[in-house]
Amino acid sequence: MIQDNLFYESVIILFITSFFVRILPSFIKINLVEKYSDVFSNYIPLAVFLNFLVYIIYTGFLNDENTIVPFLIMFILFFFKKWIPNLVIIFLVSFVYYLLEYGTVT
Amino acid sequence: MAIAICGKFKKASFFRALPASIAISPVGILFGLLAYSIDWDILQVGILSLIAFTGSGQFAIIPLLQEQNSDLLTIGMVLISINMRYIPMSYFDKDNLPNKSIPRLLMSHFLGDEAYAVENKEDNVMDRIIIRFTIVFFWVFSTMLGVYLGKYSLVFLPNSINLYFPASILLACLSYDQIKSGLKNSYDNITGKFYALIICFIVSLSSILIIGDKYFWIPSIISSAIVLAIISRKYNDSR
């Protein structure tokens, strides 16, 4: 019964969260000055991805020092990205990470 | 002919979404295992993952609700703070969505980090529908699979295992692709690209350090966009 309440509360709160951060912004229109509207619509996506990358690396380093070497390998692989698919990069970098993290059993 | 072209596009969109869908599956399984540990069944987890599709929010809510002192309003505010990055993403993505209310509502609700990173400017509504629903399908399925694996004790994971890591690398790869293409489209020369990268990196890192990694998203994204626009104006005009 308690877990059922937890379930219903979770569904409601998470949907409300999604409503405020994803659904509502897609229905409202803010009248930005055209000049600034162009600036935001052209550069916001690029800014989002740059922030994603910094956030991933920052939180990775902060939570676990074993991410340093895998992240370095990832950046080296980015130079060869033309020839290496994302799935291969994910596999190689994750393999190195898990090897460093859990490779030695004492 | 038109059907063939449409079919080709759909197939291409599906295959573009597939790496992201596969990479988030271990995280989904982990959520399923976590949900099973508090006695949620497969159906409940499936419903939650679909109606309350928020990824990181789903992980955050269980410990938040289990804490005795947390009230629902506080939990709601914490979850909105964690997911604030979606506000600019969703607002500037709205022109790419269907005009009818219900499809628009569903499409915006299913906007995840991975879908946002996979989609391109050139994608039409159908491409976006396929990308988002493929990722959501894999997410829902993997969370339900997690419950199943937990129920039948088919998986034993060390408590400390970090299953988020492949999903982080996926997001980094997709972000790199988008940054590369964004810089190519926005800047005519290497100097502009270099300054854009370095200054945005400094802005973003400073924002995280000053404001914190939960609340930095909106100020940092807006500051970075302004910096990118200024650099573009300066270096593209001076060519």
Describe this protein's structure:
The complex is a heterodimer of chains A (106) and B (239). Chain A has helices at residues 2-27, 34-63, 68-78, 86-102. Chain A is mainly alpha-helical. In chain A, α3 packs antiparallel against α4. Chain A contains 4 helices and no strands. Chain A is flat, with a radius of gyration of 21 Å. Among the domains of chain A are: 32-63; 65-106. Chain B has helices at residues 2-37, 42-51, 56-66, 72-82, 86-91, 101-109, 113-118, 125-151, 164-186, 190-211, 217-237. In chain B, 76% of the residues lie in helices and 0% in strands. Chain B is globular. Chain B is mostly helical. The mean pLDDT of chain B is 84. Chain B has a domain at 2-163. Chain B contains 11 helices and no strands. At the A-B interface, α1, α2, α3 and α4 of A face α1, α2, α3, α4 and α5 of B.
What are the key terms here?
heterodimer; A: 106 residues; mainly alpha; 79% helix; flat; B: 239 residues; 11 helices; globular
Précis, in short:
The complex is a heterodimer of chains A (106) and B (239). With 106 residues, chain A is an all-alpha fold.
Q: Uncertain runs of chain B with pLDDT below 50, 5 residues or more? A: none
Helical run tally of chain A? 4
What portion of residues of chain A is helical? over 70%
The pLDDT mean of chain B sits at 84
Beta-strand residue fraction of chain B: under 5%
Helical region count of chain B?
11
Computed structural class of chain A: mainly alpha
Question: What Rg of chain A is obtained from the alpha carbons, in whole angstroms?
Answer: 21 Å
Question: What is the number of strand segments of chain B?
Answer: 0
Shape of chain B: globular
Distance between the termini of chain B: 44 Å
Q: Kindly state the mean pLDDT of chain A as a whole number?
A: 84
Largest β-sheet summary of chain B: none
Oligomeric state as shown: heterodimer
What is the H/E order of chain B? HHHHHHHHHHH
